[in-house]
Design a protein that fits this description.
The chain is mainly alpha-helical. The protein has helices at about 5-35, 50-60, 70-90, 110-115, 120-130, 135-165, 170-175, 180-185, 185-200, 210-215, 225-245, 260-280, 285-315, 320-340. The longest helix has about 35 residues, at about 5-35.
Length: about 350
């Protein structure tokens, strides 16, 4: 494939992700409006569908303000470093078998995990270069959160790789005779919670704790620079939902409908759950956030890998009966661990 084809596919990918993100922003704002018994956006276009477009046009003309003491080059590069890895993740995500920018990357999961972790560097660059103590504190808090939750997230995917026997996303989908969300419910729960924390989504949105750190690492950003951080967060939300649809929900597999349509249904369903959680749960404290990662999710992720490895030794092809066993194991482990560390109460045990 020559450079012209690569450039064409890159432009198509960028346009696809950007339009998908704008659609999800609209869905979230309308959905949260309904949850809070209000209308949500309803002025720009029929039912407010053009509100994301209006916001985009408005933010393009916002003044770009840079603090006098800021490191201007690092301050300008930080949004780029934070945003573009979110776009590169989609290069390895297949919409259906053989349909993707890279049709079948044999190390798809490894590539996605490696690329997505680069955004942490952009967060640190933004906080450090702003010459603002609140930005720096917000960046440190966000980096600690993202690094901490990346460990259980990766370990939850290790169990998937054990069962599928491959790092290829296409092969993982093909191996799901039983959706892995049913076959390994504990891994799915760990992945979903850790992904929410990595996305800084409610109830883990501590980077936007206005009463403590104003708005976190992007306090000193405005105009298109802020828009890149904002779009990057939503692009990652779409990416996380896509990965969940492929890795745990069977990807494009499904009856009657076209394969790519099944993928989009599962993707949108995951994003709707993320919106639902944002409308339901309050923000957790910092000590609860870190305790959940290291005292709860990490031990459960390690136990889950051990359980899956034992089951594979007993049943090389995991039968449907394992679903009942794993749901029971997940329920017992979550109950015991939550009682042990009192995660259901008002504080995390020391």
């Amino acid at each position: 494939m020559d450079w012209g084809h690569w450039v064409f596919y890159a432009i198509v990918l960028f346009a696809f992700v950007l339009n998908f993100v704008m659609a999800f922003i609209y869905i979230e704002r309308r959905g949260i409006g309904r949850f809070q018994i209000r209308m949500g956006p309803n002025r720009a276009g029929p039912f407010g569908v053009l509100q994301p477009v209006a916001d985009g046009i408005k933010i393009m003309f916002k003044e770009d303000i840079v603090p006098e003491a800021a490191d201007r080059w690092v301050h300008a590069l930080a949004p780029v470093v934070a945003f573009f890895p979110a776009m590169l993740v989609f290069a390895a995500i297949p919409l259906q078998e053989g349909a993707g920018l890279v049709p079948d990357l044999n190390i798809g999961i490894l590539y996605i995990l490696a690329i997505s972790s680069v955004s942490t560097v952009g967060v640190f660059m933004a906080g450090w270069s702003s010459s603002n103590k609140y930005s720096l504190m917000g960046a440190m808090r966000t980096i600690a959160q993202m690094v901490s939750y990346e460990v259980p997230l990766i370990l939850s995917l290790v169990a998937v790789v054990l069962v599928a026997g491959s790092l290829s996303l296409t092969e993982i989908v093909k191996s799901q005779h039983i959706p892995f969300a049913l076959l390994m419910p504990l891994a799915f729960i760990i992945y979903f919670i850790a992904a929410l924390a990595e996305l800084n989504r409610t109830p883990f949105d501590l980077l936007e704790a206005e009463s403590e750190i104003v708005a976190g690492y992007h306090t000193e950003y405005s105009g298109m620079k802020f828009a890149m951080f904002y779009l990057g967060e939503y692009a990652y939300a779409v990416a996380i939902s896509s990965i969940a649809a492929i890795v745990f929900l069977g990807g494009w597999k499904g009856p009657l409908l076209p394969p790519f349509l099944w993928f989009f249904i599962k993707l949108v369903s995951m994003f709707v759950v993320i919106i639902w959680l944002r409308s339901t749960f309050p923000r957790v404290r910092v000590d609860q956030l870190m305790g959940l990662a290291w005292k709860f999710l990490l031990p459960l992720a390690l136990i889950n890998i051990f359980v899956v490895a034992v089951e594979l030794q007993v049943w090389p092809q995991l039968p449907w009966g394992v679903v009942v066993i794993n749901f029971a194991i997940a329920g017992v482990l979550i109950l015991l661990w939550s009682r042990l560390f009192k995660l259901g109460g008002g504080r995390v045990a020391a």
